Amino acid sequence: MTTRNAVVSLVAALVVVSVLAPAAAWSAGAQGQQQQERQGLVVESLDAPGAATPNSTITVNATISNPTSQELTEEVAFRLVGDDQDIVERQSVTVGPDGTTSVSFTLETTNFGTGDYIHGVTTANSSQFAQLDVTTDADVSFDEQESDGTQVTVDEVFVPEGGYVTIHDQRLLEGDALGSVIGVSSYLEPGFHEDVDVTLFDVPGAQFQTSELTESQVLFAMPHLETNNDRTYDFVSSNGSADGPYTVEGEAVTSPAPVTVANGTAGGGADGGTSTPDAGTDEPTGTATETEFGGADDGETTGTEIVDAGGDENETTGTETGSPSLVAELGSGN
């Protein structure tokens, strides 16, 4: 997802202005010893959306573990900071000896402005946090991977109005928007999705001469709208007049990734598995840097540039264990 330079500055600002945790009141001589003796609940993992639209609902899940031999009950806190928002929610959590449990926090982004935020979950001595982009723009992240030739996985896709994520081969760069579609996901509800599996060579309206990739090559993930409310991907069968791609400033959002086919041959382009739209009309053409897409709303064909969405830069921003400054930063608040 998109690089967010403001996040680093935001983290630094949070540390400076945060209210210190109770541990900070310990004397310097005893603090290290007491921290070492005190073992508490640990945030093992965080499942937090990387993007959301304004006035929507997000859910953040975390796995909390107890590394001790006795049952522990502690406060677990969620905090979101950014723009003019500073939201803290707490839960009392009990975990048995050497056990784990899950916690969930739900937040409404009502009155949130578009921009970058940080949200995370913290216990008394550990925390994990992630970036959140509140936006109305679609985004996608498609990482390098190995495939059996019949399926690929899109790491992250954000479809603000719902829709699909499609997979295109390199004919997309030649302007063949319809014929380059070799895979499409099932319908995706509005919001942020992770690890979306896409079956290849099973696209409504397309006919293929193969059922699997036989060459390793670069493929492109591209989010598409649902424009005619039938929850069926109709871009190919409508000759590009329905279910067109999400665009940002007139540019289709894409993410390329090298896909290695197990037991396949080295490639680099289309592998002969060509598709023919059933619609039978002229396919759009363009230059190596432009692709013609059907209009999402009016069925007209317009020239749309392809733009790389920026790879997988929306990674979790960090994990801290036994860090009083970060615990205070994310866990403090009234």
From TrEMBL:
Domain of life (superkingdom): Archaea
InterPro entries (UniProt xref): Ig-like_fold, Slg1/2_DUF7282
Start-end of Low complexity biased regions: 273-294
DUF7282 domain residues: 138-260
Organism: Halorarum halophilum
Protein name, entry field: DUF7282 domain-containing protein
One Pfam family from the record: DUF7282
Region Disordered: start-end pairs: 258-334
Origin organism lineage: Archaea, Methanobacteriati, Methanobacteriota, Stenosarchaea group, Halobacteria
